[in-house]
Amino acid sequence: MARWQRRRKMSKAEARSREADQKEYVSRSQGQMIWSAFKRHRVGNVGTVVVLLFILFAIFAEFVAPYHYGKQYRNHPYAPPSTIHWRDEDGSLTRPYVYRTDRTLDRTTYKVSYIEDTSKKYPIRFFTRGEAGYKLFGLIPSNIHLFGAMADDGDITEVFLLGTDSLGRDLLTRCLVGSWVSLSVGPLVVLLVIPISIVLGGVSGYYGGGVDMFIQRACEVMLAIPGLPILMAMGAALRGFGLSAGMVFMGIIVALAIVSWGGTARIIRGQVLAIREMDFVTSARAAGASDLRVILRHITPNVTSYLIVNATLTIPGMMLTEAALSFLGYGIQEPMTSWGALLNAATNVGSIEQHPWILIPGIFIVISVLAFNFMGDAVRDAVDPYSVI
Amino acid sequence: MLTYMIRRTLYMIPLLLIVSLISFSLIKLMPGDYLTTARMNPQITEQTLQQQIERFGLDRPFLVQYWFWLKNVLQGDFGTSFDTRMPVFKTLFFGSRLMWTVIIAMTTLVLTWIFAIPIGIYSATHQYKPSDHVVTFFGFLGLSIPNFFFALVLMWMLVVIFHVGDRGLGVAGLLDSRFFDSPFSWAKFVNYIWHLWPVWVVIGTANMAGLIRLMRGSLLDTLSLPYVQTARSKGLTERVVTYKHAVRNAINPLVTTLGLSLPGLVNGGVITAIVLNIPTVGRAYFSALQRQDEPVIMGGLLFFSLFLLIGNVIADFLLAWVDPRIRYD
């Protein structure tokens, strides 16, 4: 850069600062600074929107899903995703419609295929009444679904947007209902891990001495435990007890929390150790604050930014672990389902080769975990608004 | 330093003991009792059953049973598999399972570093440029794909889209059947590599994003230090400044994370081996779990734990070696 250019630039900067001097300063709270830093992270914003969309779809899962997630269409096992037709016979654009499909078995090759019966069109309609009744938010009984296929004479046919599984259950419905488990596992585990880590890490760092020794050794044991193998064993134990699916779900969350608190507690201990020596803690103590008050009022707020970052980055990891466990059959049990459990049907290449659509739940996992990761990245950049990146 | 190394190594013993106690209680918690199953089996005589009860103290309280188990282990006896009737050691490490487990872990780790560090450097030197964003995006994508799903999709793509079967190449296992009995040759080696690359890709991509980000952050920090400014003002080229002055120091924090990346390696290795049918300890552990083969499950858990601990110790030694500023007394 030439000298005169640099000078011009500098004078510009000076001018700007002089302008700022004359302008009224705007004071912003920490919350506002976090928000504006968060907004600057474009990819993170997209991630957050996607996460919110997933949550929205999960809340309205039974409304968006055309059927009940346990309903088996016995004459439609492994039906491929329905073909949606956009064009008439003469090729002009029309409202989307599907045909009724019939399962046929080729007597020579024993290959099953679904053939469309083109005699009657079933246009896709929105807000149709379906046979599956549900309670929205667990309160409002309804049987209106987002979409369904109905012929003009009122005849109804099934439409499987993502195909069906081996028992003829609609995969879209199961993916939507499975999102309840898949999306809630991460936050629920974090809700368990954070209090445990605050208490153990806080006590360990604040008091030091024998308690510290003991808790640190416990952390080391937790870190020496091989995560996935021990979770598989825990899952096997849970499965064998004959518990209800809901209890198994709780058990999985507790197991995930047990296995993963060690690292978080350790880092919190480190932070507390550093904060403990700061002047404001000493003065709080000198002012006669009790230990509990010092920990909760003076130290904990200083580790919250770390906790928020840790939470948003732990969630995707927990989602992946739950998916892996359920995929192996040691996670969520029937009749509950999750994206990982749905992939349990896709354990061998032969099955995937014939019915590739059973891999679709995996795409839901990838997109949601990616979105959570980007959101976490944005949160990490934003929670420390004073840092200059 | 030597005392530190010895102390660090000896410290593994109490940790292993506690892990073994936890694993033991977990396995005893598992429903389905070995004795009842064994009594149903006509091949097992009452006499062998009595022997087993005697040996493992199966009719005694839990802690006594653990004590029996521990005594046997200290004598080098990890018990006999309920399923294969072979010693646990043999069942877990049968064939070259142990070797493959270690080889896969090591090669994946090395490959991850070989790829992640240059990418991290590139990302840091091109901060906020589109290429930086692209690299970050793919890093996150690799992080977000479940290992098992990636392995499934890879298999599906190889078989259905690329039709590798037509060229006589399989996708699961370690080796195509025609090489099973052949002596070691170049073609056999290539076949091993063909079967291993999906494993490297699947586990590697899952662990690379973290390393890339660390390298990027660490290098950015280092590049803003005064000594780098000094190097620049001496008139050194940016290349020399980056690679000779900054990168060497920026790598140190990464070595610290070596130990932290091990669990990911173990978990990824287990699940990938299960999906891709690679004969590793993880796969043997999975089949033992499916058959409720308690002694083998126990041995497997101990093995993984030992693997983690040894890895951590090596990482610590490496850190001490790389960074002489760290002192241990």
Helix proportion of chain A: 55-70%
Low-confidence stretches of chain B: none
- Give helix % range of chain B: over 70%
Query: What string, H for helix and E for strand, traces the elements of chain B in order?
Result: HHHHHHHHHHHHHHHH
Annotation field: number of helices of chain B: 16
State the end-to-end distance of chain B. 7 Å
The separation of the N and C termini of chain A measures 24 Å
Biggest sheet features of chain A? 5 strands, antiparallel
Class by alpha and beta content of chain A? alpha+beta
**Low-confidence stretches of chain A at least 5 residues in length (pLDDT < 50)?**
1-7
Query: Could you state the order of secondary-structure elements of chain A as H and E?
Result: HHHHEEEEEHHHHHHHHH
Mean pLDDT of chain A: 84
Radius of gyration of chain A: 28 Å
Count every beta strand of chain A, where a strand is a DSSP E run of 2 or more residues.
5
Summarize the structure.
By secondary structure, chain A is an alpha+beta fold.
Would you spell out the secondary-structure blueprint of this structure?
The complex is a heterodimer of chains A (389) and B (329).
Chain A: H1 3-22, H2 30-40, H3 42-59, H4 61-64, E1 85-87, E2 93-105, E3 112-136, E4 140-150, E5 156-157, H5 171-207, H6 209-224, H7 227-240, H8 245-276, H9 279-286, H10 291-328, H11 339-343, H12 349-354, H13 360-383
Antiparallel strand pairs in A: 1-2, 2-3, 3-4, 4-5
Chain B: H1 2-10, H2 12-29, H3 34-40, H4 46-56, H5 62-74, H6 88-93, H7 97-125, H8 130-144, H9 147-161, H10 186-223, H11 226-233, H12 238-250, H13 252-256, H14 258-276, H15 281-290, H16 294-322
